[in-house]
Amino acid sequence: MIGEFIRTTSPRESLGALHNGGEGAQFIAGGTEILRLGSLVEAKKVVSLKGLNLSGISEEKGIVTIGATTTFQEALENEVVPPYLKEALLYCGSYTRRNMATIGGNIALRRDDSYLSPTLIAAKARLILGDIASDGKYGEENIPIREYHSFDGHFEGSLILRVVLNKPKRFVASLRYARTVQSPAALTISLGADISSGAPHDVRIAAAIKGTGVVRLIEVENGIMEGHYATVEDAAAHAGQDLVLVDDITGSGAYKKYILTASVAELYKQCLDAISKGGAQ
Ligand SMILES: Cc1cc2nc3c(=O)[nH]c(=O)nc-3n(C[C@H](O)[C@H](O)[C@H](O)COP(=O)(O)OP(=O)(O)OC[C@H]3O[C@@H](n4cnc5c(N)ncnc54)[C@H](O)[C@@H]3O)c2cc1C
After folding, report:
1. What atom of ligand 1 comes closest to residue 29's alpha carbon?
2. What is the ipTM for the molecules in this complex?
3. Which CATH code is given to the segment(s) 171-276?
4. What is the rounded distance in angstroms from the CA atom of residue 95 to the CA atom of residue 236?
C-alpha cells in the first residue's frame, strides 16, 4: 500500500527522493501499473514525475525525441512519431489507459508482454537516462535500449528522461498475438533493419514472450546479415532454439514456438518485400 506521495520538480530531486526512499520507493508516471490491482510492482512510497516537464515530442533532421512522461495517446496523435511506433502504441487497446500510460513507464517495466520494448529495440532506439553517482553528482547518459534490457540490474533506479529515434530510414515491422486486444499477449515481436544498401544490415529481432521475457534472436539476426538463409523459412527454423517457452494462460510452449517461428518468417519476408520496393515503409 502506498503510504507516501512525494512531489518533485527536477530529475535530480526525483532521483534523490527515490534513493533516500529505500526499499519500496518507486517513481510514478501514469500510474497504470503501480496502481493496478495485483500489480507485481510493490510501492510503499512514490516519487511523482509529473512536475519534471518530461513530456513532449520534437523532431530535428529526422531525429525524433520523445519525453519519458509522454502518454501513449499523445504520441499516437503526434505527426512526427513513425508509423511503426504508432502500431505498437495501439497494442494497448484501452483508450482510457493510453491516455495515462507513459512511454518511459512502459520501458522501465520490461514486461514479458511489453507493448513497446520489441519495437524500440528493433528500431535501435536510444535512452537518455538520469542518475546520481556514488559521489552524489547528477549525470545523464545516452545508451542503446538493448543495453537497458541486457543489464537491467545496472540501470535499477535510473530515471528515463527521453527516448530517441535517430534512424529515420530504418525498416521496422512488428506482430502481436493475444486473444483480445485487452488480453496479455503470448508474443510481441519486431524486426528492424537498415535496408538502404539493398540488403538487410544492422538487423535486430526482439521478442517479448510471456513467461520468458524480452529477448533478442541474435543467431537469426547474424544469419540474415551473413546471408546464411536461402529462404525466410530457413531463418525461421533457427528462431528460439535456445529459449525455454512455458505453458501459461496465453498458450502452450509449443504454440509460442510455432508463432515465434511463423512471425520471423513473416517479418523477414516483409523486410525483403520492402527492399524489393526500394524503401523502408
Ligand atoms: C489492465 C492492464 C493491462 C496491462 N497490460 C499491459 C501489457 O499487456 N503490456 C504492457 O507492456 N503493459 C501493460 N500494462 C501496464 C501499463 O499500462 C503500461 O506498461 C504503461 O506504459 C506503464 O506506464 P505508466 O506510466 O503507467 O507506469 P507507472 O505505473 O507510473 O510506473 C510503472 C513502473 O515504471 C517505473 N517508471 C515509470 N516512469 C519511469 C521513468 N521515466 N524512468 C524510470 N522508471 C520509471 C516506476 O518506478 C514503476 O516501477 C497493463 C496495465 C493494466 C492496468
Report:
1. 30
2. 0.99
3. 3.30.390.50
4. 34
